[in-house]
Amino acid sequence: MWISQAFSQIGSQISQFALIWWITQTVGSATALATASIMGLLPQVIIGPFAGVLVDRWNRKRVMIASDLISMACVLVMAYLFATGLPEMWHLYALMFVRSVCGAFQYPAMQATTPLIVPEAQLARVAGLNQMLQGGTNIVSPVISALLMTVLPLQSMLMIDVATALPAVAVLLIFAIPQPKPNASQTGPVNLWHDMREGLRYVLGFRAFLIICAIAMVINFLMAPTWSLTPLLVTQHFRGQVTDMAAAESSFGMAIVIGGLLLGVWGGFKRRIVTSALGVAGLGLGAVLVGVAPSHAFWLALTGMFTMGFMNVFANGTLMAIMQKVIPNHLQGRVMSLLGSAAALMTPLSLILAGPISDRLGIQVWYIVGGAVCALMSLVIFLSPSVMRIEERAQEAGLDAAAAHIFDTPVEPVAKAVPANTRVSTPS
């Protein structure tokens, strides 16, 4: 599963890079790039909580397969539009929206499946390997894309995504995916509001989760434009070309690979939240470096992007491992979707403002302000006793997700089967 997802991610990143570069060159507007990102994120806000409820009820294997197939169909439609010379921006926005709907189902299904087949003690290392995979695709994909774009039309670039996704679907069809044993509330007819309230009660009753959710919302609001508007930063501020854009993506990806390898071997501090907090602080430092880099010092921006990628592994990887450990598995789809939707809500709001503010004040302001706030948020984590003791308090409350009674079969995780993070269709 992990290997097939690796190839699938490479194909998705190749097509994504080509598509974003086409929008950058054809439209050349911060508003257009921000709108594309909004279309890719809006379903996570609107559909995410309901998707999590259904993921906890439905067969997760079928959810992942269906999401992949529908996403592939969207790519085929895009390829047809470019082949016939008919693409309009609203076509791309609509197809990005549909692909994001698929991601709203696939992501919680994949993440909730991971602790069913990975030993709890290895979750942080697996998160590091998944971060390494993401970084590896960020290194390889821009370079391949930049080379292929000189000889292939955009529709052919999109078909690479389809070709690499087929093996991932085939592997999901072949191998068995464990299902958690549903609790009493999940055995009757589907009641979306009731099931969603059950997940909401869990979050509201866990003070540490509320604080983490608030921190994620603040960081997402200020940092989302830095991911979405990087192509314009490279082309307008640094006067770069497609090779410079590839260098920026590869620098970020190389850092994730190195950080993922380190986290995979080391596993982080015993108190995992310390690793995550230090990652947030380092992420902010890297963003500030990018923001203050003058137009003639592209190397300084590359250094900042490398720092952001490296520290992002420790910020996100260990936090995901914490959530997979402490959230009961029959609630993971709902809880992760609720937290993800709350954080994702901030992204379209900031992207709505990103275009006008960037056109007036420059794209660099997002890096500088967002980086400074990241450093502040890491301090909030260290000063919050409930967050610092999140794993201990979950165990004290009997909320350990590894409890054997929630599974249909005895808990003997298969360490060899390590699923990768879901493929993404928009910059994140």
Structure, described:
This protein is mainly α. The protein has one domain: Up-down Bundle (Growth Hormone, Chain: A), CATH 1.20.1250.20. Helix content is 78%, strand content 0%. The protein starts with a helix and ends in a 32-residue tail after the last helix. Mean pLDDT is 76; it is low at 397-428.
Mean pLDDT: 76
Please name the fourth-level CATH homologous superfamily. Answer: MFS general substrate transporter like domains
Shape: globular
* Record field, number of beta strands: 0
Q: From the alpha-carbon coordinates, what is the Rg to the nearest angstrom?
A: 21 Å
The fraction of residues assigned to DSSP E strands is under 5%
Query: Given this structure, which CATH class is correct?
Result: Mainly Alpha
Distance between the termini: 23 Å
- Helix percent reads over 70%
Order of helices and strands: HHHHHHHHHHHHHHHHH
Looking at CATH, which topology would you report? Growth Hormone, Chain: A
Discrete helix count: 17
Largest sheet: none
Low-confidence stretches: 397-428
Count of domain modules: 1
Q: If classified by CATH, what would the architecture be?
A: Up-down Bundle
Class computed from helices, strands and strand pairing: mainly alpha
Question: Which characteristics define this entry?
Answer:
428 residues; 17 helices; mainly alpha; Growth Hormone, Chain: A; globular; disordered C terminus
Secondary structure layout plus pairing:
Layout: H1 2-26, H2 30-46, H3 48-57, H4 60-83, H5 89-117, H6 123-148, H7 154-174, H8 192-204, H9 207-228, H10 230-237, H11 242-266, H12 272-292, H13 298-326, H14 329-361, H15 364-382, H16 385-388, H17 390-396
Helix pairs in contact: 1-6, 1-7, 2-5, 2-14, 3-5, 3-8, 3-14, 4-5, 4-7, 5-14, 6-11, 6-13, 8-14, 9-14, 9-15, 10-11, 11-13, 12-13, 12-15
